[in-house]
């Protein structure tokens, strides 16, 4: 209405006087317009829909082929109505077969963690350093790893930036008071079950317990399905804490400092392990003896490795952990060498060791 009168301003003076009847007509026209608009839309929106061609073919539904069925159904010649039932019966078993195959494919073996104890009753041979850095190397490769600090000195706990003096719940509570181990696990580069100072009293507190050698083994059952590797650092002794570690373990890695190689010490460790195999854990075995803190420039170090290989043959790892100042620096920063200086050759020593351990496969 309004817009029509504004679009035609010039002829308007003539029409204005006669405009009223025209406007009335225009109003009538506009009232009619919506009806006209709706009509063509209705025409457009009704395209002729062709019938959908039945594309689905169902070859197995060949129920009408009576001769074939009759051949199998000859034993029951009566009741022609049964033929349809038996056609269904013929389809049903094939479906059941498919179901059975799927069920078989979904079955996965329940995997439990590989438990590795790092043991040598001699102190300062790189047990703690090896436990942490090998564990982090496993984690770098995508494995789920738990470290266990079974040394009352708490060096492993400290090397992840945790103060053992301030830890409220520790392995002491797990071993002595049967606290679930999940309650003392702290998440850092790897998960770590922490030590505290009072762990030093654990051996005496456990000594009267029935099954005292199996306390750690029992505690680990709770989390065995959550990890691929459990790496246990042990104190420099062959006491009850180390016995707990060896009883819980599948494998033992023995770090040996080449400079002060103690063959007597290694024989003593082997005897302890034999005692554990006979009485507590028949499956545990030495995964390897690891030469650490190697200064390959010295003749002494080369001789030490020769002596190791003469006595232990293939048990000596191919991997070598050479001396590097980074190993002393990293724990101060609360980090593994792999995190402290990821691209260093020191970090690669433990990546190589991880590859070697993984290439050995899992213990049965
Ligand atoms: N490859 C290495 N080169 C130089 N120093 C090392 C090396 N491995 C470990 N260390 C240092 O030697 C000391 C003892 O190592 P540690 O892992 O605590 O031994 P352990 O746990 O057997 O007592 C630590 O100060 C550590 O930083
Ligand atoms: Mg240590």
Based on helices, strands and strand pairing, what is the structural class? alpha/beta
**CA gyration radius, whole angstroms:** 40 Å
How would you name the oligomeric state of the polypeptide chains in this document? single chain
* Average predicted local confidence, pLDDT: 81
Question: What attributes characterize this protein structure?
Answer:
single chain; 364 residues; alpha/beta; Rossmann fold; 15 helices; 7 strands; globular; binds adenosine-5'-diphosphate; binds magnesium ion
What does this structure look like?
With 364 residues, the protein is an alpha/beta fold. The protein has a domain at 114-359: Rossmann fold. It has 15 helices and seven strands. It has helices at 2-7, 12-44, 66-73, 82-106, 127-140, 155-158, 171-177, 202-206, 215-220, 240-248, 263-279, 299-312, 326-332, 337-340, 345-359, and strands at 114-118, 145-149, 185-187, 191-193, 229-233, 251-257, 285-292. The chain has a seven-stranded mixed sheet with strand order 3-4-2-5-1-6-7, with helices on both faces. Strand 6, helix 11 and strand 7 form a beta-alpha-beta unit. It is globular and about 120 Å long. 33% of the residues are buried. Residues 1-19 and 34-83 have low confidence and may be disordered. The chain binds adenosine-5'-diphosphate (ADP) and magnesium ion. The site of magnesium ion has 5 residues, from helix 5.
